[in-house]
C-alpha cells in the first residue's frame, strides 16, 4: 500500500457532526486533505483504496449499530497500521475498553468534549503515528527544563519562565521525573487530586502544552500514548 500523503478520513453518518469534525481538523492542519464518508460501504471501499494518515470514525453508521467495529477490523486485516480515533455517543466507560481491544488509538464520547480536546487528541495521535514511521525527532536538550524540586516556583523552559497553575506543574514534574516511562491516567489521578477522570487529565495536559508553546512554539515533548497515558519524550 502507498505511504500516506497528508490525508485523513472522517467517517460519520450525521452530516453536521461530520462537517464539524472535518472543520476542526482543517483549522488545526490546513495542509491535510479530509475525505468525508457517511456510510459503511463507501468508507470500507475508501479504506481499501486510499492510504490515510489517520481515520476518525463513529461506531454507529445509519442502521448499522456496529459498523465502525467492522471498519476497524477491515483496517486491521489490511495491516496498514492506520491510527483510528473513535468519536461516538456510546458510553465511554463501556466502549473505550472494547475499542482498545480492537487496537483503536483513542476514544472520545460525543457531547463530553470540545474543539480544543478533540484537536489535542487528534494531533497527539497524528504525531505519534508519524513518529513511528521515522519522522524527525524533536530536539529536546537535557537541561531545557528546570524544575524547582518543591514546585514552589514556576518552572523554566529553555531559560524562560512558564506560567502554569499548580496542578499542571505537578503533572509536568511527574512526567519529567518518570521519563521515558509512560505515566498512566490512573497514576496522574493522584497528581490531579480532584476531578479524577481522563477528560480532566487531558484538559490539564492541554493547559500544560499551551503554556510551553507560548515560550516555545515548536514544543512537542509530551507524547500521548493512546489509551494509556502520557510520556515525556526522552532528550535526543
What would your notes on this structure say?
This is DNA-binding response OmpR family regulator. By secondary structure, the chain is α/β, with parallel strands linked by helices. It folds into two domains: 126 residues, Rossmann fold; 88 residues, Arc Repressor Mutant, subunit A. It has eight helices and eleven strands. A five-stranded parallel sheet has the order 2-1-3-4-5, with helices on both faces. The chain is globular and about 55 Å long. It starts with 6 loop residues before the first strand and ends with a strand. About 3% of the residues have low confidence.
List the helices and strands and how they pair.
Layout (H helix, E strand, L loop, with lengths): L6 E5 L3 H14 L4 E5 L2 H10 L4 E4 L9 H12 L5 E5 L3 H10 L4 E4 L5 H18 L12 E2 L9 E2 L2 E2 L4 H13 L4 E2 H8 L5 H18 L6 E4 L3 E4 L4
Parallel strand pairs: 1-2, 1-3, 3-4, 4-5
Antiparallel strand pairs: 6-7, 7-8, 9-11, 10-11
Helix pairs in contact: 1-5, 2-3, 6-8, 7-8
InterPro entries: CheY-like_superfamily (IPR011006), OmpR/PhoB-type_DNA-bd (IPR001867), Sig_transdc_resp-reg_C-effctor (IPR016032), Sig_transdc_resp-reg_receiver (IPR001789), WalR-like (IPR039420), WH-like_DNA-bd_sf (IPR036388)
GO molecular function: DNA binding
Protein name: DNA-binding response OmpR family regulator
